[in-house]
Amino acid sequence: MKLYIKYMVSLRCKMVVKEELKKMGLHFIIVDLGEIEIMEDLSLEERDQLKKALLVSGLELMDDKKAVLIDKIKNVIIEMIHYAGELPKINYSEYISKKLNYDYTYLANIFSEMKGITIQQFIIVHKVERVKELLMFEEYNLTEISYIMQYSSVAHLSNQFKKVTGMTPSTYKKLKTKNRLQIEGI
Hints:
By secondary structure, the protein is of the alpha+beta class. The chain has helices at residues 11-23, 44-56, 65-83, 92-100, 104-115, 119-137, 142-148, 154-165, 169-174; strands spanning 2-6, 28-32, 35-38, 60-62. It has two domains: 2-63, Alpha-Beta Plaits (2-Layer Sandwich), CATH 3.30.70; 65-186, Homeodomain-like (Arc Repressor Mutant, subunit A, Orthogonal Bundle).
């Protein structure tokens, strides 16, 4: 049985879900970002129990098909930007469409309708958060970060960074307290 979980966007979330499944005596086949597959079929009471247990950890069992699809889109983007070794060489729209087996226009329309922003805007915000993370660790200079994040130039990266954060990457780097958004909150 497949179940979909909202706000499940990190390895820590996956560990929490695995722990809750074990507590309930459920056997999982897959625990992935936003999605789990278990061997058993859940009764309404078990589903309710799992829903409540996940809610305590800030996770939400989803029922609405559109919400499930939105969450899948978000998880593909989060995985692509934050966890993949490198960004895909193909167009993001093509990548998302292939990963989810849906026409991109359909995905884009549903996403915009439900979230109030475009998929592209969502990608930009996540790329900027990833840039913040890379700046914080000081392993790479801005030129290298620009290359890693597949910006056409440092100027393009800086412009997007400033549009999203209101400051340049260099200003951000100089801040004593670096404000980063939690992935779940974006």
